[in-house]
Specification:
Helix content is 44%, strand content 23%. By secondary structure, the chain is α+β, with helices and mostly antiparallel strands.
Length: 239
């Protein structure tokens, strides 16, 4: 009854080593295909499926290296020839590798199909229009508005605190000049979320300048009226 216990167990080491050697060669070869595919498709990750007479192969890549190479025969279950999973069964691997040359041929045909895709694409384009003139005009208008706003800020600074804001309504819209140490911090129209004609960041757009520049004069007149009211208030003081 125990004769079988005395029999020698065949070692699988040699078969496993042979399989692992084959898999390493396939991984290296498929890795080259993955890098070529990544270059062609211009991304860090992606996948592509290639059909053969025997089935279909899906090559997934990430960071220019193969993530997996999956074989799906016409009949039977899928096999991950290259993956982070356990290595495939020898029989399934043998079935897949019998179709591997066809996969490589399909891959090469896929790459070759791009050879003439860009052949007739033009590389002569119209000259790009310069924004220099528009920018120069914008900067000129902004500089003039800042000059006036800074003059107002200086007057406010002399009259009051080191910083503050002056607000008024022009054409039904709120205008606010915020100053600090006699210099303009911003000139904003429309309250929170409004348009900044002047700021410490990006300049106003030409569209915003076109929309509000005509009202800057009315804003200055309102400020002058405000200063006149202050002077009138002081006129009533007698010592």
């Amino acid at each position: 009854m125990t004769d079988g216990l005395e029999r020698e167990i065949e070692s699988a080491d040699d078969a496993a080593a042979a399989r692992d050697e084959v898999l390493e060669d396939v991984r290296s070869h498929a890795g080259r295909a993955a890098r070529e595919l990544a270059l062609l498709e211009g991304g860090d990750y992606g996948r592509e499926t290639f059909d053969t007479d025997g089935g279909s192969w899906t090559l997934k890549y990430e960071g220019g290296d193969v993530q997996y190479l999956r074989y799906e025969p016409r009949t039977g279950g899928e096999t991950y020839v290259v993956s982070t999973r356990e290595p495939p069964e020898p029989e399934a691997l043998a079935t897949a590798l019998a179709d591997y040359d066809a996969f490589v041929a399909a891959f090469n045909a896929f790459v070759a199909s791009y050879d003439d895709v860009l052949a007739d694409v033009p590389t002569e384009f119209p000259e790009v229009a310069s924004t220099a003139e528009a920018v120069a005009e914008r900067d000129r208008i902004v500089a003039r508005i800042r000059e006036v706003a800074d003059a107002m800020a200086d007057e406010l600074h002399r009259y009051g605190d080191s910083y503050g804001s002056y607000t008024t309504t022009v054409s039904g819209t709120r205008w606010e000049l915020k100053w600090e140490e006699g210099r303009t911090s911003y000139l904003r129209i429309g309250g929170e979320g409004g348009v900044y004609l002047l700021s410490q960041y990006s300049p106003a757009t030409p569209e915003d300048l076109r929309r509000y520049a005509d009202d800057v004069g009315a804003f200055v007149e309102a400020f002058n009226g405000h200063v006149a009211d202050l002077e009138a208030d002081l006129d009533t003081v007698s010592l």
